[in-house]
Design goal:
This protein has one domain: 3-Layer(aba) Sandwich (Rossmann fold). The protein is built from nine helices and 14 strands. The chain has helices spanning 27-33, 73-84, 94-97, 112-127, 144-151, 155-161, 204-214, 272-280, 293-311; strands at 2-8, 12-22, 39-49, 59-65, 88-93, 132-142, 169-173, 179-181, 191-196, 220-225, 239-246, 252-254, 260-261, 284-289.
Length: 313
């Protein structure tokens, strides 16, 4: 663990925090063989409200996880909103720590499993920080970061990493839901999904189906924004990303021990080669991404209310 103070202004204390994580490829690697994964140093930026009259004050915290395009302006707008509410924030830098800029079209470079591990290793460090309330740490993320946000609540993964800590809430923006978990045990913390009706990158229908399966078991809900695509909370119009995989025709089984199985063949996609083969059965290239002003305004309002409700005292 390494704490490095990198800035102080009249409102916020900023620290760079580095810690040891690892590079598992799959959920299966985390669940069955975590100790033998290649080690990796990861860092993030912690922003804490600065109170000169009470320097020992503890704050709720929102941990943010970016998507496969990396940290973008609208992500920082959310963090700024949370800071203005009096929350600390933590910008997890899984990509920069591994010298990767984007994983669009090749998410084997930095996997969801590795980023979930990063998030929990960050949670462990932040829980011991003298200015953070350990039981008031929420996680939020977008797209790939939405997958991290959602599946960090999956009990087989969580317990393999840390049985004693959990996030206070999970707010996932347009996550990939096209998985059928054999094990439907998730955290009892509040979980909410925000997704666009017209999303062709990470479609909304599988999210609706998964939430329907889970809502009688756990505290989970979903909001689907009408006439909205992937990245509806960005500024700007629609554009086509030719590299992105469209998963609108995919549903993958997720075994209890963390294997994601190919459609039809039921072969575990246990390495990058097998994953690329598995994607050939159901994906196509080219996805739509772009903002919708109405959905953007609603999602910022929802995110604000969600964090106040789940982690503010």
């Amino acid at each position: 663990m390494l704490f490095i103070s990198i800035g102080l202004n009249s409102q916020n204390l900023v620290e760079k925090i580095a810690f040891q994580s690892a590079n598992p490829f799959s959920f299966h690697d985390v669940i069955t063989d975590l100790e033998n994964q290649e080690k990796q140093e990861v860092y993030g930026n912690l922003v804490i409200p600065y109170d000169s009259l009470n320097p020992d004050k503890k704050y709720p915290l929102v941990l943010g996880v970016a998507g496969s395009l990396g940290w973008k302006n609208h992500h920082y707008e959310y963090l700024t909103m949370y800071q203005n509410l009096g929350f600390a924030t933590f910008e997890l830098n899984s990509f920069k720590s591994r010298r990767i800029e984007s994983t669009v079209g090749d998410q084997t470079q930095v996997t969801t499993a590795a980023m979930i591990l990063d998030a929990y290793r960050a949670l462990e460090i932040l829980s011991d920080h003298p200015n953070i309330k350990k039981d008031k740490i929420s996680i939020t993320g977008w797209s790939l970061g939405g997958a991290v946000t959602f599946f960090s609540a999956w009990i087989p993964l969580k317990n393999a990493i840390n049985k004693n800590l959990q996030f206070a809430s999970h707010l996932a923006f347009y996550p990939p839901c096209f998985f059928e978990p054999e094990n439907l045990e998730f955290s009892d913390s509040p979980i909410h999904i925000l997704i666009g009706e017209l999303d062709d990158w990470t479609p909304s229908d599988p999210c609706n189906t998964l939430v329907d399966k889970l809502k009688n078991k756990i505290n989970i809900d979903i909001t689907v924004y009408k006439d909205s695509h992937h990245g509806f909370d960005r500024r700007g119009g629609l554009e086509i990303n030719e590299k992105g995989y469209s998963f609108k025709d995919c549903t993958f089984k997720l075994t209890e021990d963390g294997y994601v199985l190919m459609n039809y063949l039921n072969i575990p996609m246990s390495n990058s080669f097998l994953q690329k083969i598995g994607f050939l059965f159901c994906t196509s290239r080219g996805v739509t991404i772009g903002g919708n002003s109405e959905a953007r305004n609603k999602s910022f309002g929802f995110a604000k209310d969600f964090m106040i409700r789940t982690i503010q005292d």
